[in-house]
Each structure stands twice: as C-alpha cells, then as structure tokens.
Amino acid sequence: MKKLLNLVLPAILFAACSTQSTAAPAPSLLKSSCVLSGEPLKDSSPTADYAGGKVGFCCKNCLGKWNGMDEAGKKAKFDAAK
Question: What is the CB neighbour count within 10 angstroms for residue 19?
C-alpha cells in the first residue's frame, strides 16, 4: 500500500500543478478577414484590440483608418465583416 501511495501521490500532485496556468490565454482573432476591406488575413497582418479580442487588417493603412474611427463606426464595420 505504501508503494502504491508513493507512486500515485506524485502523479496527482504533478497533474494538479500542470493544469494551473498563471498566463492569460492569448486572445484570438474575432474575424477571419480584414474588417475594413474584406481581404484575407496573413500571420503577419496587423491587429487591434476590440470587444475582448483582436481584429485583423490586411495592411497598416486599414489599421490606421480603424484607429481613426469612432466606436459607432468600428461597430458598424465589425458587424458587417465576415
């Protein structure tokens, strides 16, 4: 019984420790295409935080336009995007 406890207890402690994470999960993209142009996104596409996640842009120009928009404009473009 003692041998079994010596084998099981470390496994339980390891499993409990490995499921806890101090890092927050990375937010995912909320849309699969540029919210302004509709162009497909690449891994290197610029992003901006929006609605608890990230939205992507096909280029820096679209990101600049997005940053210049008011919240109502951003919501309208976000809702219309795929």
Answer: 7
